[in-house]
Amino acid sequence: MLKNQRILLVLLLLPAITLSAVNTTAVNEALPVDSDDFVRLSIYMERQGSLDYLLAETSDMNKADRRAFVINHLKDLAAESQAQVMSFLQQRRAEGLVKDMHIIWLVNSIALQAKPQVIKELKENFPEIGHIHIEQSVPTEQLMDDNGSTRNMIPLSSSVTDEISWGVQNINAPAVWAMGYQGQGVIVANLDTGTNYNHPDLQDHIWVNEDEIPNNGIDDDNNGYVDDWRR
């Protein structure tokens, strides 16, 4: 079940990434001014997996074979299309100009930290790169600026509609739901600075530890945590 869900997600999420030629102006504006510090970035290659191709090639396969085919295809695509870029980055890493480099074959990208001069070389010399994303640092206070509703678990306004948000639409989640995959039997852990479990999209789906009595100050299920009835 889980394997099939992962494959469906791979197949459906592929077209959610729209790439174009590297925007030189945007990259330049995102680079730190008068600084030679390492910059966190992600490189997305122009070539991406084709949903139509994968669906056609795997239509008659069983779950295990379909999963293996998709993974192998995406890994091969990443290895082939990233070859020249990786050779360059490995050379720059040996020179101390690149670090923390990771290939993310699922979306044919490379996550890394690099000096500004390396980023400029990338955007100027590698036409196979579709997009360079510079990670911007955002203060935690700004990320949590929701008038305290998340931090204080304040229920949101009842005027919230059932409209599916653009981000959920963009990853083709409704198409997965239509196939009958709606998270049945799956528990998802969320590690964050705070989650508003009173949010309309979450309040009816929060996992509850039935072996723990809420707020009695006792570790009822003997797992080493007191009152962990909802986490």
Major β-sheet, in short? 4 strands, antiparallel
Indicate the overall shape: extended
Q: In order across it, which strands form the biggest sheet?
A: 2-3-1-4
Low-confidence parts lasting 5 or more residues at pLDDT below 50? 1-5, 14-21
Instruction: Name the helicity range.
Output: 25-40%
Strand content: 5-15%
The total domain count is 2
State the distance separating the first and last CA atoms.
25 Å
Count the helices. How many?
9
Mean pLDDT across every amino acid position: 80
Structural class: alpha+beta
Number of extended strands? 4
Question: How much is the radius of gyration in Å?
Answer: 22 Å
What report would you give on this structure?
The chain has 231 residues and is an alpha+beta fold. The protein folds into two domains: 136 residues, no CATH class; 79 residues, no CATH class. The protein has a four-stranded antiparallel sheet with strand order 2-3-1-4, covered by helices on one side. The N terminus is likely disordered.
Write the layout of secondary structure elements.
Elements: H1 2-13, H2 24-30, E1 39-45, H3 51-58, H4 63-81, H5 83-94, E2 98-104, E3 109-114, H6 116-125, E4 129-134, H7 140-143, H8 166-170, H9 173-178
Antiparallel strand pairs: 1-3, 1-4, 2-3
Helix pairs in contact: 1-4
